[in-house]
Design brief:
The complex is a heterodimer of chains A (117) and B (110). Chain A is mainly beta. Chain A has no helices and eleven strands. Helix content of chain A is 0%, strand content 50%. In chain B, strand 7 and strand 8 form a beta hairpin. The chains are: A mainly beta (117), B mainly beta (110). Chains A and B meet through strand 5 of A and strand 3, strand 7 and strand 8 of B.
């Protein structure tokens, strides 16, 4: 059974940092693109970043480029999102997905990041 | 990149059909056949219903269908059931490894 389990969310002050993790199981992690998608409270979905199977290609939405870094550890079947210089508008539930967002059949349950003083 | 335009709400009675539009530009919806649709119930993760404009993942009933004309993609849910009441989001590839979601549509089963 495919499972994606996010962790690492929480309350952080503006300007702070947080690292999200996504533990994958039930499939060959190294064979798939992986993505992060976020949803602000009461708002719609927003693609954040994705990473190729070998980790050598990474892409970001403009609003997080330079502040967020996506990475993966294929030996540990894990996906990460390092978030720096956090702002109030980064407050959202962050989901990891298997594949790119135009074909993501599997999503995690999400982890809530709240940026507030 | 601006969000794709969806109507805020749509509704239909059980057994009827509802169609949701998703309007973008020639740089996203109109330029690629990589449009997908997700269903999201409150407090839950989204579920893929349609990918590559009109393809259904395994397990998705054929009551869900997708199409595209020009810069507008559409999702039709036929034979509405109570469980179809949810938020629906389109998403399109927008070139240069960018992706843009729609603004979302709340479907109500009357």
């Amino acid at each position: 059974e495919v499972q994606l389990v996010e962790s690492g969310g929480g309350l952080v002050q503006p300007g702070g940092s947080l690292r999200l993790s996504c533990a994958a199981s039930g499939f060959t992690f190294s064979s798939f693109w992986m993505s992060w998608v976020r949803q602000a409270p009461g708002k719609g979905l927003e693609w954040v970043a994705n990473i190729k199977q070998d980790g050598n290609e990474k892409y970001y939405v403009d609003s997080v480029r330079g502040r967020f870094t996506i990475s993966r550890d294929n030996a540990e079947n894990s996906l990460y999102l390092q978030m720096n210089s956090l702002r109030a508008d980064d407050t959202a539930v962050y989901y990891c997905t298997r594949g790119t967002v135009v074909g993501a059949t599997y999503w995690g349950q999400g982890t809530l990041v709240t940026v507030s003083s | 990149q601006s969000a794709l335009t969806q109507p805020p709400s749509a509704s239909g009675s059980p057994g009827q059909s509802v169609t949701i539009s998703c309007t973008g530009t020639s740089s996203d919806v109109g330029g690629y056949n990589y449009v997908s649709w997700y269903q999201q119930h409150p407090g839950k993760a989204p579920k893929l219903k349609i990918y590559e404009v009109s393809k259904r993942p395994s397990g998705v009933p054929d009551r869900f269908s997708g199409s595209k004309s020009g810069n507008t993609a559409s999702l039709t849910v036929s034979g509405l059931q109570a469980e179809d009441e949810a938020d629906y989001y389109c998403v399109s590839y927008a070139g240069s490894n960018n992706y843009v979601f729609g603004s979302g549509t709340k479907v109500t089963v009357l």
